[in-house]
Design brief:
By secondary structure, the protein is of the alpha/beta class. It has 9 helices and 9 strands. One of its GO terms (molecular function) is hydrolase activity, acting on carbon-nitrogen (but not peptide) bonds.
Amino acid sequence: MDAWHPRDLRGAGRDPPDPRWPSGARLALQFVLNVEEGAERTVLNGDDGSEDYLPEIPGTGRRLGQRHYSAEGFHDYGARVGFWRLLRLFETRGLPLTAFAAGRALELNPEAGAALTERGHEVAGHGYRWIDYRDVDEATERAHIARTCRIIEAATGRRPVGWYTGRVSPNTRRLLVEAGGFLYDSDAYDDERPYWLSEGGRSHLVIPYSLVTNDIRWLLSPGCATADDFFALLRDAFDVLWAEGRDRSGLMSVGLHARISGHPARIAAVARFLDHVADHDGVWICRRREIAEHWIRHFGVNGN
């Protein structure tokens, strides 16, 4: 059994631990902004071709050996426009974010890292490149983790304590544990509460993420076509978890991307969801770093 990637169908079973969120909150709500633009596949980054995951441009595919100007523009919009629109939205509401930032994205656009820091948001690592790390050898991935940490620290003044690769290799989590200094990673979709993994006296906290309450639904079929669709998806998930929180507090993750939710027709759904949340008490809106610190403080390393 791989200790860092166990297949555990039981989890906490019928009696999961009470998270004991601050102020007795019945729900912890955490927003992630993925900062990936510039780190995607492109010949400009030394790849053999261009990004091919472009549902907004039907019929397109990877173009080997050449630039794909439409694909570049789709991503560039996120960095040039969408990122700032989302930051303004959360700034006007006084709400915190955790950014999953690819090292290459901040390397090309360090102003984004500085802006996140100025507004008090957390910046976690998201790989050096926004690529599938199953195709990357162990030595290169180890170097990418170290390089990303240096880039984030240079851009924000603080080394990342969280990590989310997204498309992990069999080595990713072990390399993070070996590197040290991380409070958590979020490369998991198997639970709604944090949990511990351990091997050989080393422990590692996992804070699961979600691809359901995530704006990637805009680009999948069947998915969201209008702001009403995405708002309803987020609202319904929130309402269920908030109701369950009377007896058992939970955690909800919302994943956003600047090149997706940063468009005017889509950010409307995020704004409406924030209005909906504001109408409810007992909600702790937080950074992922704070979830990790809370879990360690209340349950101890490798606690239950």
